[in-house]
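This part of the workshop introduces the protein records we will be handling. Getting from the letters to the tokens is the skill we practise here. The record below serves as our worked example for the rest of this section.

…
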Amino acid sequence: MKKKVLITGGSGFIGHHLSDLLNKKGYEVSILSRSNKENTSEISYYKWNVDSFFIDEQALLEADFIINLAGENIAKKKWTAERKTSIIESRVQAIQLIYEVLHKNNKKLEAFISASAIGIYGAYTSLNIFSEESPLADDFLGTTCQKWEAAADHIADLNIRTVKIRTGLVLGKEDGFLKKLIPVFKFRFGSAIGSGKQYMPWIHINDLCAIYLKAIEDEQMKGAYNAAIKDGTTNALFSEKLARIYGYRVWLPNIPSFLIKIVMGERSLLLLTGQRVSSDKIEKTGFKFEFDKLERALKDCLGK
């Protein structure tokens, strides 16, 4: 009998790719969605609404595994005080809702696997290489991720194997942050941002989905894992590589930090800062990255 994987936030970029991979690997996939969607031959849909604390409990009771990708897009809107609260609550309350149903029904999953982010190490740039054991930051990004992971730890309290995937910048063909850069670089207007020295820990969408699959299948995996290549890519290097793929060298000066701050406000930290992270822990499980070279990953995403 097929194992059943329930994905929250499964209608987005990562969820779409992950669903395809799980189907190919013989899993039965279902998705919790805020909107009414018709079932397909590959995916079953169930309703939930975190704001009203509603969930179709049958979705959880039938699942063998839950992959939690739910959470509002952190880069989409200005970081007002209200928006910051919404970003945190969308992550924490989603897991709390799942916890309540599991606890009430004494439901034992084989594993609960939750998204997190490398933002847990803070929105600044340093020479440190952060491992899963490194000190965590107390700024907005760090606090958001810590509360996100603390909510997931409550699932672990139910004696359910719990894995937290601290994700870097995801490179993909149709979406992700690369999609916004393509028009600029394609028409030869690409350049580095700010100092260009901020690190950009990245991961190809195929590798990220493969890590989620391994978290399902490797019963020894639990706790936090960084999901990003540890090659020390800076924003300047990333810009140079992307421009080279389009056949030119970056010729424009770096976009000044103050302009980014004027346009984006506090959100500019997402572009102007970045940490190096270690992937040693996930690699010690035997996981091998398919795309560990930036140029090859970019060419694959761009069809070059």
Summary: The chain has eleven helices and twelve strands. The first helix runs from residue 13 to 24. The mean pLDDT is 95. The radius of gyration is 19 Å.
